[in-house]
Amino acid sequence: MTIDKSWIFPNWEGKPKSVGAIVTTRHGGISSEPYQSLNLGDHVGDDIENVIKNRSILLRELPGTPIWLKQTHGTQVSTPFARQATGNLDIEADAAVSNIPNEVLAILTADCLPVLFASIDGHVIGAAHAGWRGLCNGVLENTVAAMQSLQAELLAADISVWLGPAIGPDSFEVGADVMDAFMKQAPIPAQAFVPIQNKPGKFLANLYLLAQSRLNAIGISRIEGGESCTYSDQSHFFSYRRDGQTGRFATLIWLTK
């Protein structure tokens, strides 16, 4: 992962040259505190004119206008066919897939896990917003299934994945209800939930490890990323857990041909 001024340029094993990707940071925009400065979320209380200007700054780095989703911590996946039917308006989903060049998929986060997908042949891409609820309920699996619907005979083993900046395993405190929800869905790695000393019923959850486990279970082994913690890295990332009222950064992916 390379950070260059306001941008992160993900590069991972299996990512084709025909796939572009960018993650923004909190730098390079015009918003004031507590949204300073490149807030891209239009639903967090920031002046909407500032958000529009911030998105125009981002657009200079992209081949097209991003497809902004109305994220609900669910498992719905937006497809090209569905977007054509609605004209890209009011897309309520927590993931999107595409096989169309220069169609930019975008995920907004401030602690939840953004996940990028690319078929190794460079024909299909995906992006998912994986908060713990969506991750537990299958948003990653649904994204892979939607990619496969766009490319006949695409195997999960032929998809590579990059895990973007999220709240890290030393910072994400959850209750037993969260651990129980995952345990009811599928086996979980031993270190996915670590008990917190002197806090009965509280655990440190590892979103990265949970995501890797779910992806491995469906046959995806090419997985990279998971190097950041939005909560502890205040200089680069917005964090809802840390600050409450704050902005959102974007994780974006597109096909260049």
Secondary structure layout:
Elements: E1 2-4, E2 7-9, E3 19-24, H1 48-59, E4 77-78, H2 80-86, E5 95-98, E6 105-109, E7 113-119, E8 125-130, H3 132-137, H4 139-150, E9 159-163, E10 173-175, H5 176-185, E11 193-195, E12 202-205, H6 207-217, E13 222-225, H7 240-243, E14 249-255
Parallel strand pairs: 4-5, 9-13
Antiparallel strand pairs: 1-2, 2-3, 3-14, 5-8, 6-14, 7-8, 7-9, 10-12, 11-12
Key phrases:
CNF1/YfiH-like putative cysteine hydrolases, single chain, 257 residues, 6-stranded mixed β-sheet, 24% helix, alpha+beta, 5-stranded antiparallel β-sheet, globular
Structure, described:
- It is a single chain.
- The chain has 257 residues and is of the alpha+beta class.
- The chain has a single domain (2-167, 220-255), classed as 4-Layer Sandwich (CNF1/YfiH-like putative cysteine hydrolases), CATH 3.60.140.
- It has seven helices and 14 strands.
- It has helices spanning 48-59, 80-86, 132-137, 139-150, 176-185, 207-217, 240-243, and strands spanning 2-4, 7-9, 19-24, 77-78, 95-98, 105-109, 113-119, 125-130, 159-163, 173-175, 193-195, 202-205, 222-225, 249-255.
- The strands form three sheets. It has a six-stranded mixed β-sheet with strand order 4-5-8-7-9-13. It has a five-stranded antiparallel β-sheet with strand order 1-2-3-14-6, with no helix packed on it.
- The radius of gyration is 17 Å and the shape is globular.
